[in-house]
Amino acid sequence: MPVTLPHLSRRAFGRLALASSAAAVGGMWRAAPARAAAPTGEPIRVGILHSLSGTMAISETTLKDAMLMLIAEQNRKGGLLGRPLEAVVVDPASNWPLFAEKARQLLSVDKASAVFGCWTSVSRKSVLPVFEELNGILFYPVQYEGQECSRNIFYTGAAPNQQAIPAVDYLLSEDGGGAKRFALVGTDYVYPRTTNQILVNYLKAKGIAEADIMVNYTPFGQSDWQTIVSQIKAFGSAGRKTAVVSTINGDANVPFYKELGNQGISATDIPVMAFSVGEEELAGMDTAPLVGQLAAWNYFESIDTPANTAFIRQWHEFTKNPKRTTNDPMEAHYIGFNMWVQAVTKAGTTDHDRVIDAMIGIRQPNLTGGVAEMLPDHHLTKPVYIGEIQDDGQFSVVWKTPALVPGQAWSPWVPETKNLIGDWSKPIACGNYNTATKTCLGHRHA
Amino acid sequence: MRRVRTTCLLAALWLGAMVLPGHGARADAFADLASPQLGAVTAAISTLAASPDPQAEAALQALGERSLFAAPDGSVYIRHGESYVEARTGQPPATVPEGLKPIRLNNRIRTALAGVQAGRDLLAPQPATRLRAADALYARHDPAMLPVVEHALAVEKDAAVRTRLTEVRAATILGQPPAPDALASRLEAVRTLGAVGGAQARGILAGVAGSDAEAPALRREAQAAVSRIDWHLRAWGVAQNAFYGLSYGSVLLLAATGLAITFGVMGVINMAHGEMMMIGAYVTWMVQQAIRATVPALEPVAILVAIPVAFVVCGALGIVIERGLIRFLYGRPLETLLATWGLSLILQQAVRSIFGPTNIAVQTPGWLSGSVAVGGMDITLNRLAILVFAGLVLGGLMLVLRRTPLGLQMRAVTQNRRMAALMGIRTPRVDALAFGLGAGLAGLAGVAVSQIDNVSPNLGQSYIIDSFMVVVFGGVGNLWGTLAAALALGMGGKVLEPTIGAVSAKIAILVLVILYIQRHPRGMFPVRGRGVES
User: Fold this and answer.
1) Could you tell me if residue A415 is inside a domain?
2) pLDDT for residue B219 is more than 60
3) Transmembrane ranges (chain A) (predicted)?
């Protein structure tokens, strides 16, 4: 490696910025004009695999923009290994088979050193075989149902034990209203079904009777919620505190909340805890009737830390729109990207195997004042926040877990997987290791 | 994780034990409002609510409005605009301390505050306010509120409020643990609630009927009341479901009427029909924004202004599409299908590029929000408005088709294009106007849908399949068929949904429609005549 003075100072500056948490982001932004010359050499390609058209564009376009911002900033700081980063943006158009095709293109044609992408679980399942076959690296930034642990994927969103379980704990607690009955309402696909299976087992273990749990699924894009909301209302009028746990996806949330408001159900009557409603979704709603409704995430835009303030300012400047909101998956990409930068720096190469091995144990300050650590099962340690919707479309945090929660790839609340762990560090190096029989069940759990 | 939590809990308890005696000695309810323990906060709220101090009321109100702040030393301040006053005294402090943080407000605190507010409102001068407070207390039936309710009942003069308060008292009494000497009052409470009916009363009575601690006579009485209420609830449930079916059917009808013209009357397979609805919804939003920026006073009626605007904009766009694209493809259904599908993608992406991919917030005016109770059912106002609107649109369309020259010409062209042309009708002009009419109707549907669904570039896609299904099921070219099909599909869906779930209901309806179309390929009300065969 040619050791030149500007190169050294650039590296040193980069490391300093990554190591220090809070003010670093803001500092880098302001320090940018004073940086050394632009990086030269063969660019390192970073794939961005987010839908820019079709139904998922509503959520995924924002993540593409966030990645472009992070990559531009890294280049301003001198790139990576002295080489510039180049974003390769593809549009899988919310079409699951197209995700696999585009992933193959990114890995074999564009030779992407890392890919940041996917939102829905079905798109991740669709690209997983491609990443394993071509030994790529995927950073997946969305909260999901768990029950998966691939060597080639880093799950920077929440596993169920980092969102669903703490959220239900809050609802059960006296501060959260002490709910005794639960309506689990979701869209009919893999994430709500798996999450609800975990939650039903968990609630039963907490002493909630079967008759006090109602599970309901609706098709994608459901817009007529009249019957279901009136069922929830009837379910909630049995004289005991009732709460709704919502895994309703994307667009269907707006008509659901509208119907709740119109049928006169307020958060103090029957609180709704949502796992897929963030700042972005609220942007399309009049939130006055929703005040007090809940959401569980690992990040909220309203959390007041210097790092978050700097990140939001940078986002507004990058998008030239002071109203653009930030959200949880954006923070996941922020953490994932910076971890990858650290791992590549540590490994001194973008070679996939060496970067994957270097990733485990990397620590990166998150935006809310904690430190995310990449665990051997490729999940992160995360804080869990419960936020209540305010009339300005933001969330105010009403509760947080006392400590960071380590992500669990396999849920202990599902009988088939209760003895499984993922551990990609040596000597186990297995995504589905059975701790009872001390055997690896193979590359991937069927 | 659990061990960590236990440790934290122990630490909190230990700290609490250290701190609490001090608090107890000072009995400072104002400072307790800022306590991290929500139990202490709710206790402070009760203390302050009972206090005659006028500052207490101001502090509670500020807490509910999130304008109550705590300093690091525990003192509490109320924010008025940019300035602060001390909560305890109402006087501005000598210096505003650094690091003021808003006191957190969650549902538990909000519930406690609402209880305090309702208790206070029971003695308000306006009977309407008192009635609202009584309703709120009925929903809560908090046993601790019994003395407040008794007191209000003793001084209440208004008959309606008295009746409601009696019911509130009954619900509150039954919320208390059973005691042998309270049997008479509890029995009366059960009778009162049995007469009130409704799901809430049923819940309370079922609790009494199922409790082993209650006297057998009381349980029998409660059980009988529960059975009676159940019967009522079932009957009202049927009516409620019928309304849901009608409402769902009216949305389908609105979405399908435009298609009934373009596909049903003209025979054009228009895959961009949903996008016309989407554009109608975006027009609604733009009209709202424009009115808010110019004459904010008119904002509640912006939606009414949007109706003609959306019709004209979408209608004009429809005419442009017909002249620019469709007219080259008459008689080539496959190419029309592909071309209009391509057009739908172009329109979606264009809207996405201009307005962004995220949802936009179309406001629902106050007069369209909420619901009215009719007997045992809730009629939501926005759904009711859409039901009426769908009826008006269909009626208006019927008039246009049967009473205007354009309608006559359209029907003539549909039945026999060549003969109509020979009679001097300018068929290209009629085609363009008919397509424009269909597109305009889709725009109207978009205005309606913006009130119940989210408005994003994807809006149209969720309606296109249903619209085609309605038109084909009803019989192509027959408006009455479209009406019947929309209502049948709406009702069918809502009858099936409570028993087999929304997903299976959707599948079942689709299967039933396919089976029906198999036997009756031309739908429920096929158009008969010589011209149609070609």
Assistant:
1) no
2) yes
3) none
Partners of A223 on chain B (C-beta within 8 Å) are 452-453, 462
Note the pTM of the prediction, 2 decimals. 0.83
* Domain count across chain A: 2
Both A267 and A330 in one domain: the answer is no
Cβ separation A224–B251 shorter than 8 A: yes
Model pLDDT, residue A32: 39
Chain A CB contacts of B203 under 8 Å are 237-239
- A193 shares a domain with A145: no
Residues A239 and A333 occupy one common structural domain: no
Minimal Cα distance from B357: which residue of A? A58
B110/A233 touch (CB, cutoff 8 Å), yes or no: no
Contact B498 A267 (CB under 8 A): no
Residues 73-132 of A with CB under 8 A from B: none
Residue pairs between chains A and B whose CB atoms are closer than 8 Å: 164
Residue A266 sits in the same domain as residue A400? yes
Domain-wise residue ranges, chain B: 122-214, 238-529
Closest Cα of chain A to B429: distance in Å? 35
Of A221, A227, A237, the CB nearest to B203: A237
**Contact criterion met (CB < 8 Å) for A388 and B107:** yes
Do residue A222 and residue A271 come from a single domain?
Answer: yes
Distance in angstroms (rounded) separating the CA atoms of residues A111 and A89 = 13
CA distances from B454 to B85, B276, B446 (A): 43, 15, 11
Q: Mean pLDDT across the stretch B337-349? A: 94
Residue B113 C-beta-side C-alpha neighbours within 13 Å: 21
* Per-residue pLDDT tens digits for B460-491: 988 998 999 999 999 887 889 999 999 999 99
> Are the beta carbons of A295 and A275 closer than 8 angstroms?
yes
At B142 the pLDDT is 80
DSSP code at position A374: B
Same domain, A179 and A209: yes
Residue A443 is assigned to a structural domain of this protein: no
| B199 closest CB neighbour out of A237, A259, A268 | A237
Q: Which residue among B349, B359, B501 sits closest to A283, beta carbon to beta carbon?
A: B359
Q: Domain containing A246 — which CATH number?
A: 3.40.50.2300
The residue range of the domain holding A275 is 162-302+389-406
Please report the DSSP string for B120-159 in residue order. HHTT-SSHHHHHHHHHHHHHH--GGGHHHHHHHHHH---H
How would residue B1 be classed by pLDDT, with cut points 50, 70 and 90? very low
Determine, for residues A289 and B369 on separate chains, whether the beta-carbon distance falls below 8 Å.
Answer: yes
Task: Count the Cβ atoms, other than its own, within 10 Å of residue A424.
Answer: 22
Q: Inspect the interface and report whether the beta carbons of B106 and A286 lie closer than 8 Å.
A: no
Quick one: closest CA in A to B238, which residue? A227
Pair (A249, A360) in one structural domain: no
The model's confidence at residue A23, banded by pLDDT at 50, 70 and 90, is very low
Residue A234 within a domain: yes
CA A73-A79-A83 angle, to 5 degrees, is 155
Q: What is the pLDDT of residue B138?
A: 86
Contact by Cβ (8 Å): A394, A407: no
Give the A window 159-188 contacts with B, CB below 8 Å. 174-177, 188
pLDDT confidence band for B389 (50 / 70 / 90) = very high
| A151 and A170 in a common domain | no
Residues 210-239 (A) with a CB less than 8 A from some CB of B: 216-219, 221-224, 226-228, 230-231, 233-234, 237-239
HEC string of B308-377?
HHHHHHHHHHHHHHHHHCHHHHCCCHHHHHHHHHHHHHHHHHHHHHHHCCCCECCCCCHHHCCEEEECCE
